[in-house]
Amino acid sequence: MENYFQIAADEIIAFGDNFNELDMLEYAGLSVAMGNAPDEIKQIAKEVTATNNEDRIALILEREFA
């Protein structure tokens, strides 16, 4: 998608809560681990938020795009 939309890695926001999202979190300009993620994922992310049951993705997107 990066090439298709012609956006840079530092313009990408990635959210993840498990090891299958590891590469994406390392690549994105803003990486956010969910509060219920394993500690290894939280350490890689630039930011850690509440669990994925607490609407934190919506709040971060609102903060970044408001």
Automatic annotation (TrEMBL):
Species annotation: [Actinobacillus] rossii
Listed InterPro entries: HAD-like_sf, HAD_sf
Name recorded for this polypeptide: Cof family hydrolase
Lipoprotein in keyword set: no
An example molecular function term from Gene Ontology annotations: phosphatase activity
Annotated PANTHER family: HAD SUPERFAMILY HYDROLASE-LIKE, TYPE 3, PHOSPHOSERINE PHOSPHATASE
UniProt keyword list: Hydrolase
A GO term from the CC aspect: cytosol
Highest taxon in the source lineage: Bacteria
Pfam families: Hydrolase_3
